[in-house]
């Protein structure tokens, strides 16, 4: 490994999302969110992609693990104390929109919901943990998806602006870092969670997906404006799902296809949110989806907002890489984070088929920094795995340590290359409900939670072997992995 030192003040920590850990889904006035309507189990995405899925909660037929999740709503003090024990410098969490505006379209916020995050933030600050807030992480109020048709509807810009203003003005004196939309580009493969679009309300019409993105870009720019005017010290980030992509081979046809895949998937949203304008290849990307620029409702005022209020830094998730092949030379496929693809013969995959590629993270950091020249924050990374509790209660998760160690080495490599990296928050620092499968058994945490896929368990928290390892890494600022 390279012997580069992580910069002083590097933000080591962990990341979660409200819908995947809080539970308390109807407490203190919280309204239902789209995540509450997604059934548990590996069929989750298949069910949500079926033509008749209409967001109805059918408890006779399905289980809904997000309703209770790991009950962080009542355990947050204990959980944050454990994060502090690991030495976290930063904690990334999201605000459940439906705790603040239960139906999304109210004009007055729910004070009890706001108070919960006041306490959460105070608890972080008590331990000198810097809060990093994702304003919207896969959980718009259910009403906005069901009755407004999700993000394709421009009214959502108004609702989001109200939500973002409320949150930024309430917490923005104590919180310096905000992200607008989690994995905004994920809609290219699966617009359910980030745009509230299912086949029933237009997910299969690409025009809706692009219009929804535009509306989210405008909403994000408005949030940046609000934050910078409220407190110039606030740093606003976009958040993208980055999966480094390789051409399957040296065939120029695959190389070009890979370049265009990168433009469309990895860069398109960031190009708009960081550079403040639609990229030059937009017309090609639209054309490949049967659309022209004229199909989108984009006003000059909106385009001007995008230009003026771009984000300050880029945050991204990185779990795996992918391969582009359009020449029919490979027939081996793999699963992946919202997208599968062709198998890379040089890589191993996780139990869920995600191809593990630490070098791809060093490439990602270099590619992003070369292109945008703004600070980067890795706000998700980790290994979803089945853990075994030994007879003495310990959890020997060496596989997780190996995964994280190799990715931290890759970050060090990128820092050595001159990339400006702000911090690293591994995903699911405490076990939580999986977004793609609704399983508890797909665990990422340093902290084990006694809860199974059927919702049975004491909810007791315990420290895995990786807990002590990460504690040491933070303490020595990445010099001893
Ligand atoms: C990211 C999401 O795609 O990956 C998280 O932002 C998600 O919400 C994480 O949990 C891991 O994916 P999964 O499906 O294993 O939970």
Account of the 3D structure:
With 481 residues, this protein is an alpha/beta fold. It has one domain (11-475): TIM Barrel (Alpha-Beta Barrel), CATH 3.20.20. 38% of the residues lie in helices and 12% in strands. The protein is built from 15 helices and 14 strands. The strands form four sheets. It has an eight-stranded parallel beta barrel, surrounded by six helices. Helix 7 (155-171) packs parallel to helix 9, helix 9 packs across helix 12 and helix 13 packs parallel to helix 14. The chain is globular. The site of 6-O-phosphono-beta-D-glucopyranose has 16 residues, from loops. This is 6-phospho-beta-glucosidase. InterPro entries: GH, GH_1_N_CS, Glyco_hydro_1, Glyco_hydro_1_AS. It comes from Lapidilactobacillus dextrinicus DSM 20335. The active site is at 380 (nucleophile).
Largest sheet: 8 strands, parallel, barrel
CATH class: Alpha Beta
Helix content: 25-40%
Number of domains: 1
Question: Which outline best applies?
Answer: globular
Number of strands: 14
The helix/strand class is: alpha/beta
**What proportion of the residues form beta strands (DSSP E)?**
5-15%
CATH superfamily: Glycosidases
């Amino acid at each position: 490994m390279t012997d580069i030192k992580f910069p002083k003040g590097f933000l080591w920590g962990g990341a979660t999302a409200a819908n995947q850990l809080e539970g308390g889904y109807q407490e203190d006035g919280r309204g239902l969110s789209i995540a509450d309507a997604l059934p548990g189990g590996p069929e989750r995405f298949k069910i949500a992609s079926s033509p008749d899925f209409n967001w109805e909660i059918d408890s006779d037929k399905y289980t809904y693990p997000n309703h209770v999740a790991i009950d962080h709503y009542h355990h947050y003090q204990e959980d944050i104390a454990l994060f502090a024990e690991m030495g976290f410098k930063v904690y990334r969490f999201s605000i459940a929109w439906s705790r603040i505006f239960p139906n999304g379209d109210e004009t007055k916020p729910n004070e009890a919901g706001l108070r919960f995050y006041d306490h959460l933030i105070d608890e972080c600050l008590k331990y000198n943990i810097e809060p990093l807030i994702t304003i919207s992480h896969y959980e718009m109020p259910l009403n906005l998806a069901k009755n407004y048709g999700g993000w394709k509807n421009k009214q959502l810009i108004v609702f989001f602006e109200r939500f973002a203003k409320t949150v930024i003005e309430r917490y923005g004196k104590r919180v310096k870092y905000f992200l607008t939309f989690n994995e905004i580009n994920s809609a290219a493969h699966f617009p359910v969670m980030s745009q509230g679009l299912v086949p029933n309300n237009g997910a299969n019409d690409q025009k809706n997906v692009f219009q929804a993105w535009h509306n989210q870009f405008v909403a994000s720019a408005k949030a940046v404006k609000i934050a910078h005017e409220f407190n110039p010290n606030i740093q606003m980030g976009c958040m993208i799902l980055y999966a480094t992509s390789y051409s399957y081979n040296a065939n120029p046809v695959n190389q070009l296809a890979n370049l265009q895949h990168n433009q469309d998937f990895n860069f398109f949203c960031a190009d708009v949110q960081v550079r403040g304008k639609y990229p030059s290849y937009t017309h090609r990307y639209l054309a490949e989806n049967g659309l022209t620029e004229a199909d989108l409702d984009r006003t000059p005022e909106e385009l001007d907002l995008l230009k003026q209020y771009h984000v300050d830094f880029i945050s991204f998730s990185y779990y795996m890489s992918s391969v582009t092949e359009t020449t029919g030379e490979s027939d081996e496929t793999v699963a992946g984070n919202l997208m599968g693809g062709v198998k890379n013969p040089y890589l191993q995959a996780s139990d869920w088929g995600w191809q593990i590629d630490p070098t791809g993270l060093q490439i990602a950091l270099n590619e992003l920094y070369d292109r945008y020249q703004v600070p980067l924050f890795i706000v998700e990374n980790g290994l979803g795995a089945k853990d075994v509790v030994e007879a003495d209660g310990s959890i020997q998760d060496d596989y997780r340590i190996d995964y994280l160690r190799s990715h931290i080495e890759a970050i060090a490599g990128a820092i050595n290359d001159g990339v400006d990296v702000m911090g690293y928050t591994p995903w699911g620092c405490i076990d939580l409900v999986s977004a793609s499968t609704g399983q508890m058994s797909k665990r990422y945490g340093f902290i084990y939670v006694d809860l199974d896929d059927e919702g049975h368990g004491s909810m007791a928290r315990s420290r895995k072997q990786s807990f002590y390892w990460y504690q040491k890494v933070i303490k020595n600022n990445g010099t001893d992995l």
